[in-house]
Amino acid sequence: MAETEPTTNGGSAGGGIGAILAAGDRDFLVRNSGEQVKISSIEASPVALYFSASWCPPCRRFTPKLIELYKELASQGKSFEVVFVSGDQDEEAFNSYFGKMPWLAVPFSDSEGREGLDGRFKVSGIPHLVILDAKTGEVYTEDGVEFVSEYGVEAYPFTPERINELKEQEKAEKDNQTIQSVLGTSTRNYLISNKGDKVPISELEGKYVGLCFVVGGYGPVDEFTAVLAKIYEKLKEAGEKFEVVAVSLDSDESSFNESFAKMPWLAIPQGDKMCEKLVRYFELRSLPTLVLIGTDGKTLNTNVADIIEEHGFEAWEGFPFSSEKLEILAEKAKAKAASQTLESLLISGDLDFVIGKDGTKVPVSELVGKTVLLYFSAKWCGPCRAFLPTLVMEYNKIKAKHSDFEIVFISSDRDQSSFDEFFSEMPWLALPLEDDRKAFLKKTFRIRGIPSLVAIGPTGQTVSRDAKAHLRIHGADAFPFTEERLEELQKELDEKAKGWPEKLKHSLHEEHELVLLRRGTYGCDGCEEMGSTWSYRCDECDFDLHPKCALAEEKKGEEEDGKAAEEAPAGYVCEGDVCRKA
């Protein structure tokens, strides 16, 4: 990879576009027709360098957006050019991908030129879009993907001044927000029903409006909208002035139509650019999300989905989710949690058992009085497979000392054979694969990702919703996962820390000394496991080591002092227990 001076936003890339794109004897770019275009003939400015590849899914999703922007700017007579810098691994893939693009490209045969541009702009991930002034080489932005996705043609000419202007406009829009400015555009003043009717946005004025961001076929959203639909109907019956508007993130109309057909409320038309704008406007971070707009058109809450997920259908009693109403819901939830038992979690009608390895039914009553971990996991999940050996090891350690302990596997596998194969590696119990209790437990504990471990104490009360973190940090010593036990471990660790050196050097981070600091939860850059409370850290480099990892090397160094270290082969760098290509 070519070594050149790095560029920064607003800085110079070192000469105009000709100096940047020319390489060796090559003074041309190519079109997908095979035509060669002299670099010196490019008059358009700005020019975007598009680092992309056909094998990259995010690239394939972004390319149509860039094509749409390119054609729209051309139709408006605005000066703009794109140069494709391919990361494809063979010419056939390059030709197939480039064949869909209306712009220029660095020839695939010029691998040195492509690698040189990668190095010049320090491309570490794709898609990556660098936009610069063709005459001076000044880099307007290296965040072109973000700006094209968020602002589209409005971002043109992509200068820092234009982006700042757009951000100021958005700020002004928020300060003067109305329901019309949130939902409408200069060419559309209506929403649609799932019957195809156009409903004027003006009919929503004076109402509470929930903006529900949806993706068809996405389980958590489908489950949430099913509950929201019941709340919606209940609030309508109660005479509340409430409406919901679906904001679709679906990429195709058929998927949107299929999911929208089940919704009793309105929607912004699928594919409307306002949907993408609202993602940015409300800084969407997760799904499901329900933004609540007040009767005056101002935002009351950027996400009440968490409240609805926590309280279920009963959340309707907290509408419109004011602090007073939320206090009432919180008191009800507290009372419900206080009455929780293991039976209330694991028994539903005739389903009063869990199963062992051979399918033997084990009555839930045999687990009452024990500490029980609910293990949400699946064979198809890589992190679950990686975590399982650790969990089995710590389970066996705990069971050797405490008979009042058990784990129940709650599978998200998609077929019986996968369930059976994964469960065969586990020495504990499980719920059957096709079991109605699984959905209830996932909803109760708001399981958003796997693997997850929820600890239920001997009284049936929840003692930890993140027992996985405690196990990874403390191992079997974390049992019984109560706050009192974790405080004991904290005190023991604090006592040990008094004997540790305040600073040390380590081969994994030779640039600076590592300083012993009290920390929250962190990831160890040595063993790549979770850590907590104490770390040997370099703030400047955001580097952490478990004390056991940092101090183990000191001990090893003393034992092996004087021994010659074997060097890694050329082209490799060895860090910890892994040797990687440099």
Automatic annotation (TrEMBL):
GO molecular function: thioredoxin-disulfide reductase (NADPH) activity
Keywords, in A-Z order: NAD, Oxidoreductase, Repeat
SUPFAM superfamilies in the record: Cysteine-rich domain, Thioredoxin-like
Enzyme Commission numbers on file: 1.8.1.8
Annotated ranges, domain Thioredoxin: 1-168, 331-491
InterPro entries on file: C1-like_sf (IPR046349), DC1 (IPR004146), Nucleoredoxin-like (IPR052259), Thioredoxin-like_fold (IPR012336), Thioredoxin-like_sf (IPR036249), Thioredoxin_CS (IPR017937), Thioredoxin_domain (IPR013766), TryX_NRX_thioredoxin_dom (IPR045870)
Catalytic class of the enzyme: oxidoreductase
Pfam families: C1_2, Thioredoxin_8
Catalytic activity: [protein]-dithiol + NAD(+) = [protein]-disulfide + NADH + H(+); [protein]-dithiol + NADP(+) = [protein]-disulfide + NADPH + H(+)
Similarity annotation: Belongs to the nucleoredoxin family.
Cited PANTHER family: THIOREDOXIN, THIOREDOXIN DOMAIN-CONTAINING PROTEIN
Record-given protein name: protein-disulfide reductase
Higher taxonomy: Eukaryota, Viridiplantae, Streptophyta, Embryophyta, Tracheophyta
